[in-house]
């Protein structure tokens, strides 16, 4: 008998205590009768990549989900005795397995689903919209902002917006490097995998480069599993690249950084949101030194480890109590799990406090009513306040540019983009 990925489903149930409800001003709905105790479990599906090509991101990311739910259930539970039950699947970054898992989540009554990669999210978000099941994902493909995927919610600004911010940084940094009078336009090389994730922001990046007068070198394909990028970096060197952007994950990004320096290419590498994490920086100090990372949320080291924000104190103390491994478990991906779970609990809390039935449509209504949320109780974890509307489900348009120096990421610049209609959806 063929083994199904669904046999790997694990249900995580965390007991909760009742908490005092507080009223938040959202749309009114008719109250519903008090549900039976067994109906107070809210099932949430989670896709994880624990064994596929992005597992260096997937393992700490899904650990972040589990830890965040445990913290909320123990310290800031949902009102009226409701609790969250996570149902997760290791789908190994394979779209057919994701589709099978989605159907199982739906059959089990999941009210919210966390998808994972760009391929599976693009495939499943339209179906989730038809099924009226709100979904989120690590994928930030701008195409998910469109009407046909209106039940998709971005946990961070989309890839294209972040790519535009990167080009703005390149243009500004180039001027700064030359005292405001650069001798020529900067040249930018784009290195990315030839898959939906890698390709997602390319059109927007090239459009922004044209607008700002940034010259582009011929694109170079670097697979997620690449162990050598010498040939690609030599192409950039021939072109005279002044900056390199990478659209892969940490494993392939470090290869790009290493080989750029190996061939004598004096060009800082700028990663996308998932292009680096603290474990890879610590393991590759020479390769990563002097490069940059785009971040719409803080880093674990030093922001959480030495920070004094509410988010830093909560996450640091909880992770220490759980004995989490520095760097390999505690990193940017781990924090992303906390970000997404906080959004979920915010929506569920608003639904319950308003006396609405726990349905996908009411969770959608709660999410699209969020305005200028300071991300409490995890204030200080993300780059800006969150606002979702029915028309624009991107939370904000703020991107931090972090410089990697001596094994740590330090915030160098913050770029806040406009919500221009012509930039929407690609």
How would you concisely characterize the structure shown here?
The chain has 426 residues and is of the alpha/beta class.
Q: Low-confidence parts lasting 5 or more residues at pLDDT below 50?
A: 1-33
Hey, roughly how much beta strand do the residues contain?
A: 5-15%
The count of β-strands is 13
Category from helices, strands and their pairing: alpha/beta
Helix content: 25-40%
What is the CA-CA span between the terminal residues?
43 Å
How large, in whole angstroms, is the Cα Rg? 21 Å
Calculate the mean pLDDT score and round it: 91
Order of helices and strands: EEHEHEHEHEHHEEHEHEHHEHHHHEE
Shape: globular
The biggest beta sheet, please? 8 strands, mixed
Q: Helical segment tally?
A: 14
Mind explaining what this structure looks like?
This protein has 426 residues and is α/β, with parallel strands linked by helices. 38% of the residues lie in helices and 15% in strands. The protein has 14 helices and 13 strands. Strands 6, 7, 8, 9, 10, 11, 12 and 13 form an 8-stranded mixed β-sheet that branches. The protein has a 5-stranded mixed β-sheet with strand order 1-3-2-4-5, with helices on both faces. Helix 8 links the parallel strand 9 and strand 10. The longest helix is centred in the C-terminal third of the chain and has 22 residues. The chain starts with 9 loop residues before the first strand and ends in a 10-residue tail after the last strand.
